[in-house]
TrEMBL record:
Pfam families reported in the protein's UniProt record: Creatinase_N, Creatinase_N_2, Peptidase_M24, Peptidase_M24_C
Protein name, as recorded: Xaa-Pro aminopeptidase
Peptidase M24 C-terminal domain residues: 534-594
Domain Peptidase M24: 311-525
CDD domains referenced in this protein's UniProt entry, alphabetically: APP (cd01085)
Amino acid sequence: MSTADERLAALRAQLARQTLDGFVVPLTDEHMSEYVGSYAQRLAWLTGFGGSAGSAAVLADRAVIFTDGRYTLQVRDQVDGTLYEYCDLPQTSPARWLAEHVGTGARIGYDPWLHTRAWVGDTQAALVKKGAELVATPDNPIDAVWTDRPAPSLAPLVVHNMAHAGKTSADKIADIAAWLSERGDDAVVLSALDSIAWAFNIRGSDVARTPVALSYAVVRSDGSAELFVAPEKVTDAVRAHLGNRVMLRPRADFAAALAQDYAGKTVAVDPERAVAAIFAALDDGGASIDTVRDPVVLAKAIKNPAEIGGHKAAQARDGAALSRFLHWMSIEGPKGSQTELSAADRLRAFREEGGLLVDLSFDTISGAGPNGAIVHYRVEPETDRRIAPDMLYLVDSGGQYRDGTTDVTRTIAIGTPSADMRRHFTLVLKGHIALARAVFPQGTRGGQLDTLARRALWEQGLDYAHGTGHGVGSFLSVHEGPQRIATFGGGDEPLRAGMIISNEPGYYKTGAYGIRIENLVLVVEKAVDGAEKPMLGFETLTFAPIDRALIDTAFLDPAERAWIDAYHARVLAVIGPQLDGEAKAWLDRACAPL
């Protein structure tokens, strides 16, 4: 089955064999991950969609794919509109769509290892009103027809050492145990892969671009823990690192262990990060469930001094690699000999030359001209566009280093930019600067700051359909919660000193070009004369030139000009010593005062 219509037909035949009238296909795994291993790429296999967020619903006579504003263009390029309807989130949802299109008595299947309990409850309630039923499937019907589905990775675990972690796994587990005792709970289930990696100071390579290992964990109030992971993945070094307070058990035993070992116990479970099957296993065993956020989430988000220091070191070398690339593009771009793919390959090579790159932190977004207007564009050979004069080139990229995770976007002019390009770029830059300069009281949420980044665009009747900032892990996921800067889909978490978050406003002119300027920033305490409460602000962590050719100074006030000059002076101080020759001379010019 090599085509989308053949795969859709095979799934419908399998649904009939399982006496199902429909099935919901999310893009996630058993850990509610954003980025998933190849074995869990069911939505991509079925539909051809290559984004990192979406879902589909398949009925006997129609099918639909759901994506948000980041993928409005991409989903139409990758998914056959004769097979799937396109639905935009949050204007609709799978539950609402199903309720509108199923008939009385319909049985709609779902995999309980791929959905939260809240999703199941909401969808079931919507279907009941139509006389239909939501049915948990013990066997995922896509797996039955995906005959060459990859097996889950058995790559070995690796120890994340103290120099980078800044705190021992024993101390982290002791903190979790103390939290459990305060709540009166006996144990907590950790099912998010980055939570497990952080708590146990282990990393893996089971998911491309994210250094995590397929596993589950349970931490108990007495300070002991169980790590459920395939035995083939555990080395002697990992066994010695974990010590005798951590019992190693096969990952395949996890569900049975929940049902058998925690009867009569009170178990904390995160309703956002644990799938419905975990709740069902505990319910079947007679456990009491305390629904509460995973205690690792906030601890992981507030970086300790070692993690902050490591991140700064990673940013400095990553910024040097990106600056070398930007210098290279200033020469090669106008020649018209490079493409999106060749440029992305060259940028990776610059990062690899430092000798410390473990992986990219996500697939590089390398968008020339109109492809740059596709927010989460991923270049493929079929879409590879030549980079040519008089266009904008957007590159959003990052690296995974053992001391930190990077994420940075630069938009550059190839040749001579138009007046509209410069105006739009400068409006985005004004939003970036406004957020970078923000000072706010403790307790401020990301959603309260989002308008700072959008104001200049809004005043011109413009906007962008994505959040302004996301958290970033420490040699972990490039998208990390709970903090966000957004007016939709999050942004309710108070920002705290030690959090790392992106600052990335943008503007996208469909069919023409995209603009995004992204730096990572650290939330820090701010001393404000006369302040009556503790104040916070941002320290910029990312250093690489912002294209001066795209800045229309007529749109900037003196304070904004001063910020750009000060930022470029800092770029020279951090990056300059790492460059020499023509690259250093180019950097001097790129960072000259406005």
